[in-house]
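Lay summary. Proteins are chains of building blocks that fold into shapes, and those shapes determine what they do. In this project we predict the shape from the chain. Here is one chain we studied, written as its sequence of building blocks.
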Amino acid sequence: MKSPLLTLPGAVPAEGVDEGVAAHYGDLFREQRALADGTGCVDLSHRGVVTVTGEDRLSWLHLLLTQHVSELPAGQATEALILSPHGHVEHALYLVDDGTTVWIHVEPGTQDALVGYLESMRFFYRVEVADRTADIAVVHLPAGSITPAPDGVVVRETSYGRDLFLPRADLESFVRSAGPAAGVLAYEALRVEDHRPRLGFETDHRTIPHEVGWIGTAVHLNKGCYRGQETVARVHNLGRPPRRLVFLHLDGSEVHLPPHGAPVRLAEDGPEGRRLGFVTTSARHHELGPIALALVKRNVPAEAELLAETTAAAQELVVQP
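And here is the predicted shape, written in a compact code that computers can read:
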């Protein structure tokens, strides 16, 4: 679904999973600074939107999700995961309940699979699941923004900003009034700085929540049974996830940013050394310079200097070894 905001002056389309919205509007660092200062907004209208209504919506979702949501207060934002039977991350949900409806946004293109799974688990519960992507768009306002949400718009408020579930017909007029618009590259740079994992970037087919720091934020360790809980409990009790997320300060003299999937090795072993992990997301930050997140083997020394592809990188702990 192509955003109408791609017609704004300077808009450069994003590629890959973020296709359909702007990567930037001509000045990446200016856009980052605006978001860091609490001004502007980000068009995330390519993300999937799913709603769950009905009397049993919270108690039913509580049985399926990694998060404790059975008594979720209206207006309180949370995150949750859906795991495979073996505990691998399949879906990441960003949700809020408005008192009658649970509003969820998810990674672009994953809403069909999510709705299919939820529909398969309805059974006798009084719930209705709907894909609202065609008529609802997500817009992000950064922390500190004083831009008011339009009347009647559901807001998901977090420590890093507010996500608005906006009628798609109002998207262009709202962003033009709430500007300056910032692209997803600016949003991603601040996400990397905050060490926040993203499904499909910091995860692969075998990722478990402990590896990327989702324990606590998206996984509640004291709740009833859900699919994949045995793996979560076992790894939590043993304290030995096979991999861990790290934040990388990249050599600023390099022109090239290592792409997603680029190998990570010990610097002392050189670019031909043994692969110990991979870059998940890299970005250019307006203050920190080139930065990245990477997933490495648990036993990589925490003080070791690394190579991200051929770029020297100093690691900062996100998940403890």
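What the prediction tells us: The two ends are 41 Å apart (CA to CA).
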